[in-house]
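Hey, can you fold this?
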Amino acid sequence: MRRLIPLLSLWAAGMFLTGCRAPESVPVETIEEAPPAPLAPMVHAADPKAAFQLVKGFYEIEQNAWRWTAREFSVTLRPPARADEKGAVLRLKLTVPEPVIAKLKSVQLSARVGEAALEPETYSKPGEYIYARDVPASALGGDAVTVDFSLDKALPPGEVDQRELGIVVTSVGLELK
């Protein structure tokens, strides 16, 4: 009987295993990521949905209204319809904060759209400004253009704020001429 119990157990296990089939494969539901929003021709710095267009040199949203930039910063924009025929106007709404002028005396802002270098602007007083420049049609082909901005100088990282600070931006965009 002692020999029979292990054999019966083995036989029962074998019968059970041979009678069972592998479970059918069950489809697994996946959560799809939302498709990225289409590029906009105008970006508001405080809009978190537009953050993917702020490709370089922008810091987090502050006071639900604006962002500091580094010395070099870039944004990708969708050119307005027919801008590749008529050209467009680049508009950057910015603030030059008083601490920037107090420490640096002035800052010069330059922009480039593809191979087109736009005329720089020098700011020597704190305040709100709009940097507006014509962009030639030849620089606006395709579904997206990157605008590269640079300042001739910026506040270096310090003990209180460890970011390189340039200017404050509230919006940037292209408008058809």
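Oh, and this one too while you're at it.
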Amino acid sequence: MKLENMTNEELQASEKKLAVRYQQFKDAGLKLDLTRGKPSTAQLDLADGMEGLLKDKLISESGTDLRNYGGLDGISEARKLGSEMLGLLESEVIAGDHSSLTLMYLYLLYAHHLGSQGPDTAWVKEDKVKFLAIVPGYDRHFSICEELGIQLVSVIMLDDGPDMDAVEELVRNDSSIKGMWCVPKYSNPTGTVYSAEVVERIAALGKIAGPNFRVMWDNAYGVHDLFENSQELANVMDYCRKHGTEDNLILTASTSKISYAGGGISFLGASEKNLKYFRKHFSIMSIGPNKLNQQRNLLFLKNIAGVRQHMQKHAEILRPKFAMVQKHLENGLAGKGMGNWCKPQGGYFVSFDALPGLAQKIVSLAGEAGVKLTPAGATFPYGQDPNDNNIRLAPTFPSVEDLDQAMQIFVTCVQLASIRECL
């Protein structure tokens, strides 16, 4: 029965039953964790074939001794894979160590303090520096800006991507806005895939933005499809070339949720002019990435076709987990007016919107019953969800059996918090 149609007596009776069920969960002493989108052990096992591949392969195809210093841009084979994943030319890609987050942080650090294209372009020289944050979104993106003192301005996510009417109005009228964060395919946490129209409008922002504007295009889940015949993401650089805004785009990706999470390859893509200045600063702090690790990843994955084939094995592991989440949400909450949620076709998360004002309460109730969730508010800048209703669920790491238990508890907590709110 829908919450708004229940009588006070029905609400009280339901609350008593739910309270008993909730206490049983608390008494069970469970310890379950749905906080971060990590690959499971079974997913990591898929890449164990990398071990041993380096034997007699310590010299690259181009003749580089991979055991030695040098090669700031990464080995050419890795840059080629990065170009295939990002839709760029090989000359527009740097291949680094396992963390694309590191490359994102460094790019913004350099752009802010040293300038993206020389010292005169440093954002820090301006009175205010702002970035657009698409919400709900990825907390680590927000943390980078918070660390650098860059003010975050929220823009809501729609079904086909960011609210571009709002984005364009903000960018056109405020030259202190120097960029925006995008996770364009299977966005964290909503699972949204940007439409071709949205991609082109983002690519054209450089024509109306103030100087040194950058779109941070974090395509972290570009190959993380759960099902075949998934929605394709339009090539943003192709649109940038069309509009003459190549210098306004910075792209990142990695193989860290493809091979080993702690042992993949990261990629930073940009116009050759942007890379020239990034490389200048990057060379001060690095004498090159772990080329041996890049080599073993390439020997294992080979190319984009090999990546897609490998990701089908990931999907086989993840589909039952996402199905378990949807099963409990549908069975326990559908039609009850207690919240709504996304049904992603890929990526690592499920976004749940409770009734306004209840996210913190639900997360607290779940924690007391043994289910650790991402803190309420984490998907918004400064950890402050203005409606206190968004909760990010991360089903990838736990087993299907643990997810079964965790989702029973989560649904009970949503029901209990919603009914108590009505009472």
